[in-house]
Amino acid sequence: MNIGDAFLDSIRARFQMYRELAEKTFEQLDDDDFYYRPDPASNNIAILIQHMAGNLRSRFTNFLNSDGEKPWRNRDQEFEDQHLDRSQLMHLWQEGWSCLFDALDNLREQDLIKHVTIRDEPLTVIDALHRQLAHHAYHVGQIVYLGKVLKKNRWKTLSIPRKNSPSP
């Protein structure tokens, strides 16, 4: 295995890990929970799904050949409650992630040093992937935190439970 393939395997695994954290949160939520906002200025989980899906579709449609901010994307609308039901939200979610993984599956080692643009900013493919991973880790953290707040003592932890760490 070459370094490029190792990098692509690693980044794919990290994206998949964050996707699964969010999906394990969704499994614990009631339908109404997707629309809980701690305050009017905060995003709810439905809005985070809309935004993440829109972002993934925009960034990874024609990834190597067009700016990652597509003219058809309406970013502001992603942050408005569209009153989608759970199945519609999950459909958006799957569309976004499919777009990402399809793009990753088509990348080769030699593509990693190519340049792409996001909002007219040139980035190497490696940098663009790191940027996207950080962006989605940030929003998945928000989703998990909102899930914990909503479920309180009914929350099923997604990592090592407290006081369960292995001894050195």
Rg over CA atoms: 17 Å
Structural class computed from helices and strand pairing: mainly alpha
CATH topology: Four Helix Bundle (Hemerythrin (Met), subunit A)
Number of domains: 1
Q: Which shape, going by the Cα principal axes?
A: globular
Distance between the termini: 33 Å
Strand content: under 5%
Stretches where pLDDT is under 50 for at least 5 consecutive residues are: none
Percent helix: 55-70%
Would you spell out the secondary-structure blueprint of this structure?
Elements: H1 3-28, H2 45-60, H3 75-78, H4 86-106, E1 115-118, E2 121-124, H5 125-151
Antiparallel strand pairs: 1-2
Helix pairs in contact: 1-5, 2-4, 2-5
Protein model, in words:
This protein is mostly helical. The chain has one domain (3-20, 30-154): Four Helix Bundle (Hemerythrin (Met), subunit A) (Up-down Bundle). Helix content is 56%, strand content 5%. It has helices spanning 3-28, 45-60, 75-78, 86-106, 125-151, and strands at 115-118, 121-124. A two-stranded antiparallel ribbon has the order 1-2. A hairpin with a 2-residue loop joins strand 1 (115-118) and strand 2. The chain is globular and about 50 Å long. The mean pLDDT is 96.
